[in-house]
Amino acid sequence: MRALGLMSGTSGDAIDAVLVEFKGEPSRPKWKILNTYTHQYPLLTRNKIIRVGQGLKISSKEWFELAEEITELNAKAAKACDPSSTADVVGCHGQTIFHRSANKFERGGSLQIILGPLLASILNQIVVYDFRSKDIALGGQGAPLVPLVDETLVGRVNGWRGILNLGGIANLTIIPPKTGFDKNSFCLGWDCGPANSLIDLAIEDSTNSSLKFDQNGSIASMGIPQTNVIEKWLQEPFFHQAPPRSTGREQFGSKDLENRKMELGNISREDLLSTLTTFTASIISQDLDNLFRRKKIRLIELLVAGGGTRNLFLMRQIEKQCHGVHVRKIDEIGLPSQFREAMAFAILSWWNLIGKKVNPIHITGAKKSIIYGVRVDP
């Protein structure tokens, strides 16, 4: 079975495409990456995606045209990755524009822009899309979804294994060991909080959009983090909610950045970036401490994926703060960091095609097993 996965994350910078061949048992398949491709969003499109996600009001016509453009860009990425259309199914996540966490007062909500039937027609292939709405309808958070397939992709080792994604939002997957008392445990997963979202917004704001990210963490590395303020931020209620837990730019976006900048006062750009980057690392460290406090789980290894792996200052801070955990990039075990999420939607689309259900209760909180995604034939 060949599946093509398409993914654009909360950073809204590009569409990643990966063509994967799967063989064997769906829960423990052998897989091989046949091709990868990244299609950058045009700058104006990216800016509109970010601004709409932060509350920009646009007309119905503009909404449709944005959806149409995003669909056509996904089609271009798919064709570039799989020019001969060899995939049996295309799993397309679409572009997240809005996410609302579920709580005791209201159900969750998540909006991804993609025109599934149009994509299937352009590609003349089966497309699976709309991966989150069924999870939410069944009481789940609808996020994070990649932890649902992480064990399938990377497997177990002789101890608890973690996978950390550093996209716009940081999320964790916790995989049980293959031997010992805990071998019958379930995978866990949740959103931690901001990874690159606040950092990238701060860079754009402080450079009048001439820079989109802190390359290698070089600006942050020249600053001094305001550790007293970070300690205060870490006490915010969201960071102490027990999983299932999800979030997005709605919570950690432009407004949140402005509030934190006001609290920090008149500090240099270097100190601001150093503080925000150290804050991200501190959130991860605190989550792992809370994991031990709640469930007595200690990781022996933390595999790191996502665009944040290229931020060397952030990676150093994570290594420094996650004491006793072997921290390394997920690329070292043969899984390309940049394409891990696209691979997840390739797997979910394959599982949709064969009718395989997934139990998300320990990750998103949805109350029954689900076949993820909506299938549309060309």
Short account of what is shown:
This protein has helices at 43-53, 60-81, 116-123, 133-137, 147-154, 197-206, 218-221, 227-233, 254-264, 269-295, 312-321, 340-354; strands spanning 2-8, 14-23, 30-40, 89-100, 109-113, 127-129, 160-166, 169-175, 188-194, 299-305, 326-329, 374-376. The protein has 378 residues and is of the alpha/beta class. It folds into 2 domains: 2-141 and 340-376, Nucleotidyltransferase, domain 5, CATH 3.30.420; 147-333, ATPase, nucleotide binding domain (Nucleotidyltransferase, domain 5), CATH 3.30.420.
Distance between the termini: 19 Å
How can the largest sheet be summarized? 7 strands, mixed
The fourth-level CATH homologous superfamily of the largest domain is ATPase, nucleotide binding domain
* Order of helical and strand elements: EEEHHEEHEHHEEEHHHHHEHEHE
Number of helices: 12
Helicity, as a percent range:
25-40%
Beta content = 15-25%
Which radius of gyration do the C-alpha atoms yield? Answer: 20 Å
Structural class: alpha/beta
Mean pLDDT score, rounded? 95
Q: Describe the global form.
A: globular
